[in-house]
């Protein structure tokens, strides 16, 4: 089955339960002091209540195979899966966008991580065999077809990272400072033509962060067109620029991630692209390549990555674009 987080009501053999939580809807929902994962569930329910959703109790069994702390949206998948399960149980009048926003609010306000909306939206609105182009200003989305002969390869560096404890929130504050400099709500509203002539007037570090975001917005639009056209050479150029920007301007990569990118790029050349994915400071890289290169990439990474990283072992995933959250 594809990587997913599943929330369902079921009888479950006790030996398979790692831990469990319970909380009452008749009292204020507070954060769990030890089990961080439980706070994503509690936060989703709390924010459904704040939407005046008529949510009742439920017995939920939650399982999943999305790696935690790897930059692959495990928290968003949990938030959306729990929201979808409660929506189905109680016929809540909430569409995919509302469930995504509810998950984001739970993570921002209850868990304490100032994440954006991308991860929740793709978890809620993903379409089979398509990427999703998201406008985070309007929340409009456009499905972009994935070429049938292209593999999506995820490689986990197994350098663990946690958004709450990393510098993710710091980057968010720096981007907000840049937006204030331009008098806009978000850097989505700053064009390259506006930014580049006056970037020298900004705090140098804030300017670097803004340069990444503004240039990445342009690369994203270009990548959607290249993907729809099946132009892997163009995709490769854009992904290389993206990774360099994350490394040099946003400063969120780490040496093992950069090493993985270099190894993969050395195999696929201009027949695909590779970059870090997720919030940074470890986690995973993502690569797009023809199917006939997958095994060469796998064997090369298995041979070279441990030698170049003092024995780190990667985890390799060959993925496909799947449908978003819904009933199994």
UniProtKB/TrEMBL annotation:
<dbReference type="InterPro" id="IPR006204">
    <property type="entry name" value="GHMP_kinase_N_dom"/>
</dbReference>
<dbReference type="GO" id="GO:0046872">
    <property type="term" value="F:metal ion binding"/>
</dbReference>
<dbReference type="InterPro" id="IPR006206">
    <property type="entry name" value="Mevalonate/galactokinase"/>
</dbReference>
<keyword id="KW-0963">Cytoplasm</keyword>
<dbReference type="InterPro" id="IPR013750">
    <property type="entry name" value="GHMP_kinase_C_dom"/>
</dbReference>
<protein>
    <recommendedName>
        <fullName>Galactokinase</fullName>
        <ecNumber>2.7.1.6</ecNumber>
    </recommendedName>
</protein>
<keyword id="KW-0067">ATP-binding</keyword>
<dbReference type="InterPro" id="IPR036554">
    <property type="entry name" value="GHMP_kinase_C_sf"/>
</dbReference>
<keyword id="KW-0808">Transferase</keyword>
<keyword id="KW-0547">Nucleotide-binding</keyword>
<dbReference type="GO" id="GO:0005524">
    <property type="term" value="F:ATP binding"/>
</dbReference>
<comment type="similarity">
    <text>Belongs to the GHMP kinase family. GalK subfamily.</text>
</comment>
<dbReference type="GO" id="GO:0005829">
    <property type="term" value="C:cytosol"/>
</dbReference>
<keyword id="KW-0119">Carbohydrate metabolism</keyword>
<feature type="domain" description="GHMP kinase N-terminal">
    <location>
        <begin position="39"/>
        <end position="126"/>
    </location>
</feature>
<dbReference type="InterPro" id="IPR006203">
    <property type="entry name" value="GHMP_knse_ATP-bd_CS"/>
</dbReference>
<dbReference type="GO" id="GO:0004335">
    <property type="term" value="F:galactokinase activity"/>
</dbReference>
<dbReference type="Pfam" id="PF08544">
    <property type="entry name" value="GHMP_kinases_C"/>
</dbReference>
<keyword id="KW-0418">Kinase</keyword>
<dbReference type="InterPro" id="IPR020568">
    <property type="entry name" value="Ribosomal_Su5_D2-typ_SF"/>
</dbReference>
<keyword id="KW-0299">Galactose metabolism</keyword>
<keyword id="KW-0460">Magnesium</keyword>
<dbReference type="GO" id="GO:0006012">
    <property type="term" value="P:galactose metabolic process"/>
</dbReference>
<dbReference type="Pfam" id="PF00288">
    <property type="entry name" value="GHMP_kinases_N"/>
</dbReference>
<feature type="domain" description="GHMP kinase C-terminal">
    <location>
        <begin position="223"/>
        <end position="306"/>
    </location>
</feature>
<dbReference type="InterPro" id="IPR014721">
    <property type="entry name" value="Ribsml_uS5_D2-typ_fold_subgr"/>
</dbReference>
<keyword id="KW-0479">Metal-binding</keyword>
<dbReference type="InterPro" id="IPR000705">
    <property type="entry name" value="Galactokinase"/>
</dbReference>
């Amino acid at each position: 089955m594809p990587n997913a987080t599943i929330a369902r009501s079921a009888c479950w053999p006790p030996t398979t339960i790692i831990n469990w939580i319970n909380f009452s809807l008749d009292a204020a929902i507070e954060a769990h002091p030890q089990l961080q994962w439980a706070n994503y569930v509690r936060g989703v329910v709390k924010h459904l209540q704040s939407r005046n959703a008529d949510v009742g109790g439920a017995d939920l069994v939650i399982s999943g195979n999305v790696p935690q702390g790897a930059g692959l949206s495990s928290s968003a998948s949990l938030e959306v899966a729990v929201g979808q399960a409660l929506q189905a149980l109680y016929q809540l009048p909430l569409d995919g966008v509302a469930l995504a926003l509810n998950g984001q609010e739970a993570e921002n306000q209850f868990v304490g991580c100032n994440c954006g909306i991308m991860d929740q939206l793709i978890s809620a609105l993903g379409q089979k065999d398509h990427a999703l182009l998201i406008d985070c200003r309007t929340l409009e989305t456009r499905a972009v077809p994935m070429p049938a002969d292209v593999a999506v390869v995820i490689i986990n560096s197994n350098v663990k990272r946690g958004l709450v404890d990393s510098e993710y929130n710091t980057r968010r504050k720096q981007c907000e400072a840049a937006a204030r400099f331009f008098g806009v709500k978000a850097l989505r509203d700053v064009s390259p033509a506006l930014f580049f002539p006056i970037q020298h007037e900004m705090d140098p570090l804030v300017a670097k962060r803004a340069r990444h975001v503004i240039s990445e917005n342009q690369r994203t639009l270009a990548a959607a067109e290249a993907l729809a056209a099946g132009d892997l050479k163009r995709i490769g150029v854009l992904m290389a620029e993206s990774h360099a920007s994350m490394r040099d301007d946003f400063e969120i990569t780490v040496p093992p991630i950069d090493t993985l990118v270099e190894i993969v790029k050395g195999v696929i050349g201009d027949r695909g692209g590779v970059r870090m994915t997720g919030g940074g400071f470890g986690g995973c890289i993502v690569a797009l390549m023809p199917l006939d290169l997958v095994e060469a990439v796998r064997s090369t990474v298995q041979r070279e990555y441990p030698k170049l990283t003092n024995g780190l072992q990667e985890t390799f995933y060959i993925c496909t674009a799947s449908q978003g959250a819904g009933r199994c």
